[in-house]
Design brief:
Elements: H1 11-16, H2 18-25, H3 46-62, H4 95-113, E1 119-123, H5 130-133, E2 141-146, H6 148-160, E3 170-175, H7 181-187, E4 196-200, H8 208-221, E5 227-232, H9 247-256, E6 260-265, H10 267-273, E7 286-292, H11 297-321
Parallel strand pairs: 1-2, 1-4, 2-3, 4-5
Antiparallel strand pairs: 5-7, 6-7
Pfam families: LCM
Protein name: S-adenosyl-L-methionine-dependent methyltransferase
Keywords: Methyltransferase, Transferase
Length: about 325
Amino acid sequence: MVFAVGLAPTAAAIVLRPSLSLYYNKRKNSELMRASLNAHKDEDDPLFEAAIRHASLRFQETLRPEPLLVDPYAGCFVPHSVEVDEVHAELPPHQYCLATRFIDDKLLAATKEIEGLKQVVLLTDGIDTRPYRLNWLPSTIIYDISPERIFTGAARKLGDVGAKIPRSCLFFQIPLDSSDIQQILRSKGFTGNRPSIWALQGLPLVNLASFKEILFLVSSLAMKGCIFLGEFPGRLTETEIGIKCTTKEWMENLFMSYDFRVDMIGYDEVARNLDKEPALGDYKNTLFVAEHLRYSDDQMENWRREFQRVEEDADEEGFEEL
């Protein structure tokens, strides 16, 4: 699915949104920003419920006097039936919001600092607004791998509120349940011969095997040196980490088995770097940044073809000498 080219939301556009501007004038009336994605049929869908929880957290963070991030579209996903806590400016930010800001910053920094990086792959819950709210550089191609049924409803709602992809960028959605995600990505223009960056946040992963499939996907398609970052769901490790193995050691071994060198990032560290108080409460996810250490399949194929060409040239030269 390709979305039409448009303008990214600016600070001015956000301020002028009636719901948000009214909130700042009348803080108690947060209902003005909330709308139902409707769908009585979705309310018992665990994937939908998880995506709505994430949107609710971004919505609440946006309403803070000094927010970590501003998501002008999160409110349109929050049904009236979902309780939104009153915004307490004095409370620390939620770990999810710290991770969201960290990932946002890394994505934008990489696209600006790494020459030729125009491919961004987001592994999401289907209600990720990064393609619309971040200021992507011209010619960036954004891929969203997510549950199609969640994404389709979200895309319709985003269109209703006027969300657009930044001018000269392209956006493709890849259904998570596709039989061959690699092939679909390639058919949409993705190539392992060019830099890319991959971000995981919210993607519904059933078990550790499903995360390993993601590692295999990224390892196959990403060039050597590319970055894979995001939040690893802690529940996937509950039956995996033994007494003699720490979470750090287990994560390092897991990622290295797919040719990634990984660093774990503390949420408290992210908070300190943003001059915020550490987040409260237990949070099982692990924030990570991994560097790919091997060549992509496309790079290896190029090497094989070049090697074959050199061999054929050498055979021809030897034949001529005879």
